[in-house]
Amino acid sequence: MNLLTVRRVTACASLLLAACGGNVVVDHDGSDTPPTPTSTITTTGTPTSTITPTDLPPLCGTDREAPGCQPEEVAATDGQPVGITVDETHVYWTTLDGALWRAPLDGGTAEMLAYVGGISYYLAGNALHLYMATYNSNQVVRVGKDDGFLDVLQLNEAMPAGIAVDGTHVYWASTSFNGTVRRRPLAGGAVETLLGGFESAWKIVLRDGVLYVADQLLGRVARIPLDGAPVSYVATNQLGPVAIAVDATSIYSADADGGQITRAPREGGPTVTLADAGYPIDIVVDDQSIYWTDIDTGRVSMLLKDGDGGDGGDPIVLADGQDRPQGIAASPTHIYWVETFGDRVMRVAK
């Protein structure tokens, strides 16, 4: 077995994949045929969260012992949550059994919006829809936020995972060897391949008219300008970035195989290590800080962007003892994440 094969197997195990290749269909109810998608939103019953909503939660910064600065459960769920996103009113998450759920940002009754029929590690959204690439059923789908209606946008993709959306298109990346990044107009139309040659493309981020794609096995990030300018490769010399976040100047990577959090200029330049980690699996940033989940240590951590000497200082543990924290998302006041083996959606004030 060569090095790439070893790393590929490690990645599949670490991301809780049902399989590392082929067309594997999630068995939802014991039959070979998944249930017909429905536009009826269902709920789990009584709320499980004990969060007391506040008009303006504290911004805790480095003071994690202050009142209101401890982790809290937003919702209990079924099916082992993996992907997550937030909007102005709700937190949304996907599960390993192929469902899409939501709950109010301040906690409350969890609602299943739709049965998607495959594992979606990431979500993207706009005002009307949530978009997902289902890794093991090889589809790109969208679900209406208001009615839960499921619309299949693209079939027969090669293990897609990363997903992004802007005002005109939905974008997705294939994790397969010699994988591609493709897009389709939101209003319908032909699918366009933007770039190929990826070996294991995971999270993608769209910022300022440029699409950034983390390639785990090639240890770098592809930079794809949507105006047709030349493609370049940035945040290089990493061992295995699976997730990225982008701000006005930099790319931040969860270099899972390297066990580190890194930063590199958006348009190219040296990649520097900001913090050591176990197996960091997802990452987000805001104006002041970097946040990530670590499935090896069971921690959710924060690093100040500037810190001592401009290197971020030491990481601050926001939550410890989590049972496989995976997807992570940020609202203006809180960090949200899923605890996959704990079947919970969690949050902590920034």
In this structure, how is the largest beta sheet organized? 5 strands, antiparallel
The end-to-end span amounts to 44 Å
Principal-axis shape equals globular
CATH topology-level fold name = Neuraminidase
Query: Quick one: CATH class?
Result: Mainly Beta
Mean pLDDT: 87
| Total helical elements | 1
Strand content: over 45%
| Cα radius of gyration in angstroms | 19 Å
Quickly count the domains. 1
By CATH, the architecture is named 6 Propeller
How many strand units? 29
**Helix percentage range:** under 10%
Low-confidence runs: 1-11, 16-40
Can you describe what's shown?
InterPro entries: 6-blade_b-propeller_TolB-like, Cueball_EGF_LRP_Nidogen. Keywords: Signal. The structure is a single chain. This protein has one domain (72-349): Neuraminidase (6 Propeller), CATH 2.120.10. The strands form seven sheets. The chain has a five-stranded antiparallel β-sheet, with no helix packed on it. Strands 2-29-28-27 form a four-stranded antiparallel β-sheet, with no helix packed on it. A four-stranded antiparallel β-sheet has the order 7-8-9-10, with no helix packed on it. The chain has 350 residues and is mainly β. The longest helix is centred in the first third of the chain and has 12 residues, at 3-14. The protein has one helix at 3-14, and strands at residues 42-43, 72-76, 81-86, 90-95, 99-104, 111-115, 124-125, 129-134, 139-144, 150-154, 160-165, 169-174, 179-185, 192-198, 201-207, 210-215, 220-225, 232-234, 241-246, 250-255, 260-265, 272-276, 280-285, 289-294, 299-304, 316-319, 325-330, 334-339, 344-349. The protein is globular.
